[in-house]
Amino acid sequence: QVQVVESGGGLVQPGGSLRLSCTASTMLFRTYVMGWYRQAPGKQRELVAQITSSGNTNYEDSVKGRFTISRDNAKRTGYLQMNSLKPEDTAVYYCQHGGVWGQGTQVTVSS
Q1: What is the 8-class DSSP label of residue 61?
Q2: Phi-psi region of 98 (alpha: psi -120 to 50; beta: other; left: phi over 0)
C-alpha cells in the first residue's frame, strides 16, 4: 500500500520561510501529479500548488511569488518552499500523490 508522508512544518515568524517535504512509497512516483493542499481551522481544504509529471506547476493566487513547488523523482520526494510567510498561511498542509493523502503537517505563522 502506497504511503505518503509529509514533514517540515513548524512555527515560524511572519516573513520567515519553511520547506515542506513529501515522500511517496511508490515505484510510479514520477508518473503522478503531486499537490499540496492546506486546511485552516473552520475552512475547507484548498489546493495550494500542484506539479505534474512533466514539471508544469500551478499555484493558488495568494501564494504566487512566495511558494515554490518542486519534485525530485529519483528521491520520490516533492517539496513546497514557502517564503515570506504570513499569519494567514497558518494551516495543516497536506500532500496528495496518486490519489493518496498524507497525514498532514502543521504550519503556524505567528510572532
Answers
A1: G
A2: left
